[in-house]
Write a structure and sequence with these properties.
heterodimer; A: 114 residues; mainly beta; 7-stranded mixed β-sheet; 4-stranded antiparallel β-sheet; 0% helix; globular; B: 109 residues; 6-stranded mixed β-sheet; 57% strand
Chain lengths: 114, 109
């Protein structure tokens, strides 16, 4: 079974802090993704990575950066957390094979910025 | 750009059948996914359609009409555990799927 883990289930940070969210997958997937999920807005793509050291902006990259130094790990960084970044953050990975390959999601990190 | 539309909330009775619709407008089309997400949990894969027609998988079926930009997820013999959000996701011109806002399904006794 594919396993995607995220470093924290719940996180509370203060405005202006630098925040690191870690995601690890154990299936040697090339593609990894970071989403945020907000009520009424659904899942929105922040950044994704085709492979190691590669990254692409998604639909809402402002205020975020990412790092993919190793294939299994994809980190999301909030350079200076703001209250509007309070959200559920979901990481996903996918094998870059056939088109019907699904994304596998981690359990999510619920971030509260005070 | 891509536009994906699905109802915000639906309710149904245990044992009944419910159909959750998804309409989309995308530049290019490379498949449509349905995911189930229970409250506080990760989305999990339900189905994938890339050709027109119905794909059946146990109590769940998914239908696609590419010419109409339309899909539905059909849930039969509803159980209380089917109460969840159902997410429609469309792959347009790239391999990156865009998600709809999700449909919250409430199943009551």
């Amino acid at each position: 079974d594919v396993k995607v883990t995220q470093s924290s289930r719940y996180l509370v940070k203060r405005t202006g802090e630098k925040v690191f969210l870690e995601c690890v997958q154990d299936m040697d997937h090339e593609n990894m993704f970071w989403y945020r999920q907000d009520p009424g807005l659904g899942l929105r793509l922040i950044y994704f990575s085709y492979d190691v050291k590669m990254k692409e902006k998604g639909d809402i990259p402002e205020g975020y950066s990412v790092s993919r130094e190793k294939k299994e790990r994809f980190s999301l960084i909030l350079e200076s957390a703001s209250t509007n970044q309070t959200s559920m953050y979901l990481c996903a990975s996918r094998w870059n094979g056939t088109p019907q390959e699904t994304q596998y999601f981690g359990p999510g990190t619920r971030l509260l910025v005070l | 750009g891509q536009n994906i539309d699905q109802p915000t909330e639906m309710t149904a009775t245990e044992g009944a059948i419910v159909q959750i619709n998804c309409t989309y407008q995308t530049s290019g089309f490379n498949g449509l996914f349905w995911y189930q997400q229970h409250a506080g949990e990760a989305p999990t894969f339900l189905s994938y359609n890339v050709l027109d027609g119905l794909e059946e998988k146990g109590r769940f079926s998914s239908f696609l009409s590419r010419s109409k930009g339309y899909s539905y997820l059909l849930l039969k013999e509803l159980q209380m555990k089917d109460s969840a959000s159902y997410l429609c996701a469309v792959r347009g011109g790239s391999y990156i799927p865009t998600f709809g806002r999700g449909t919250s399904l409430i199943v009551h006794p």
